[in-house]
Sequence to fold (785 residues):
Amino acid sequence: MTQQGRFHLPIALLTACVAVAAPALASPQKGPAQAATTPGGTCLTCHLQLDEPALKNPAVGFQHDVHDRPGLGCVACHGGDPTADDPEDAMSAKHGFKGAPNPGEIPRLCGSCHANEVLIRKFAPNLPTDQLSQYLTSVHGKLNSKGDTKVATCISCHGVHGIYAANDPRSSVYPTRVVDTCAKCHADAKLMAPYGIPTDQVAEYKKSVHFKALTDQNDLSAPTCNDCHGSHGATPPGVSSISNVCGTCHPQNMDLFQKSPHGKAFADLGMGACEACHGHHDIAKPTDDLVGLQKGAACLQCHDSGDPGGEAAIAIRTALELATDTDSRATQEVAEAQRKGMLMEDADIELQTAHEEIVKARLQVHLAALATVNEHTSKSVTAAKKALELAAAARHEIHVRRTGLSIAFVFIVFAIILLVIKIRG
Amino acid sequence: MGILDRAYRYLDERLELQPLVEFASHKEVPRHRFDWAYYFGGLTLFFFIVQVCSGILLLLYYRPTAEAAFESVQFIMTHVPFGWLVRSIHSWSANLMILSAFLHMFSVLFMKSYAKPREMTWWTGCLMLALALGFGFSGYLLPWNKLAFFATRVGTDMTSKVPFIGDWLMHVLRGGDDVTGATLTRFFGIHVAVLPMLMTGLIVLHLLFIQRQGIHVPRGATEESKARPGMKFFPDFALREAVVWLIGLALLAFLAAYFPWNLGVKADPFASAPAGIKPEWYFLFMFESLKLIPGHVLGFEGELLGLGAFAVLGMFWFLIPLLDRRSTRGERSPLFTAIGAVALAFIAGMTLLSFLGVFS
Fold:
């Protein structure tokens, strides 16, 4: 729900109370006994008949809400008596009718069930119950506790009156939709201005390799906002903890980086870890161009050609270039042989090794040690050269086959000519 | 006396070959402007002989199990001397045999050579074409690659549409609920034992009928044929047939060298079917026609109706010698010429359109 929507809630529900009190509208089609068998009860029966969208839409939305279950329903949040036939009685103080909760109350209202392990077990035994406690530690939760009604609460992300389970693709917190849910506030420059928070994160993230994996490849394991910032306990990761955040999915890179000379140096200088080279929201697909001292290389930020680190960066870049060039040439030549009908499974195995060793070498770049990078690039070049030899052998074999069959072809044509001469004779 | 003469004398004393030699030396083939069509039958036989020879060579290394079939073909193509050539020739020759058989059938149809007394020659020919298609269908699965696996799944699934016995028939073909190693073993048995046995028997009968009844002269060429002296089967026709066979061999050599038959990727029964799977080209006209029929027509399943229609048309085709009474009486039969032209246009058109991707 939008910020504006949240402010309309109390007004809408107040209007609802007045409207449903009118005798012309207070004539539910179902009796109380029948209504009580459904979670919405008479609340839904009446609200669904109203014309005012602000009063009707919540009832419409609630019909596919994950909370539309026996034992829950409107009463769980708003109080009142869903079995009462008379609207005034249903929404009376004696039945505990609370109307629309204000934004400050929402986290604890949701938490009254979602932080109650015993209650939650009855409906969703696997659902965690630490959302409220996490929320209270988040930036959102802290500001909410201080009375800031503009910060996100549960309904800002999950919606209200039409909430889907988080693993439902229609949910606003389904992985592919999280970024747009966060964007409702974090891409709103006016809303973010008082907090001094930039609003380009969403646009930046949408350029990233992570967003492409999530949306183009439908890879739900690719990170979106909450995977780095946390969900209910959302907070920006500190400089010192960024490599741990990235390391949850890239553990080897993190491990090597922390063992590298850069690990300590970056920490001493107060620099971020991964994002120093890869950026943070707009993480592009890393290429070998990040390594070395040429224009655009990440190493150039701290090194130049005069220092040992700069020399090592150039050497690592050269080793990677040799491996990738050889691999690329071998891949092309093997593909060409395959296109001409040769089976090249031995070469495919060598190419597989060459690719894997390049991946390992690129991983070792995080250790910033030339020797370990060289170890893998050498293995890659060796495997790619074997593939090249096999491709050359295949090319030779194609030549031999075609030559042999051309000779056979000539003999056949010669035999045909002789036969034709004989026939004509 | 040379060694060949001595050998002939040895055999003649025991088998009385002289009457056969006499028959062969006097056998003549009519000459007219359509006599080029006589060579397609022989060409089909040539490709069949190539199939038998190359098939026997492949049998030395091929292993008919789901675990080893693909690898054994891979082994043949990479490690067995000239294995790549044998496999490529076997695959190309199979396709050329079916193409040649179709051309032979249509030439016979347009020349009305099926008319009395040659009905049985037509029937054996039709059965041989059906067996050739069976060879193609069963052989397609044997390399156990991805395309063949899924095409066989689609093909065998169609048999389940046959009323009453469909499910049973599909289970018999597959050896279970799905295409598995059991299907491969069955198809292998059918491909290398059952079909060759039936085909050899039918070839013998087909050739026997032709020898017994002589070669048919089409109605429009009777006068011309009478005016021109016949061609001696030995050596004149045999030499010309040899030229045609050599052209077939040259074509095979060219195709095997420049367009070696692809092996593809090993079948994975648990993988999803690749997009746009199609059967071999000679089944395309049926496959695409069945796809064009709506799911349900007048309350009947569309595919079932389509298969029923093809079955009826196939039976009609088989019974043409009995249905075409005018040809039997030696009269012109434009109706059956038109039917043949429509059938040829339909088969060629649908196949071509499918290759052009019109139905994709």
Remarks:
- Chain B has a mean pLDDT of 93.
- The interface with chain A takes residues 74, 77-78, 84-85, 88, 236, 239-240, 242-243, 246-247, 249-250, 253-254, 256-263 of chain B (CB under 8 Å).
- The first strand of chain B starts at residue 28 and ends at 29.
- The beta strands of chain B are 28-29, 231-232, 296-297, 300-301.
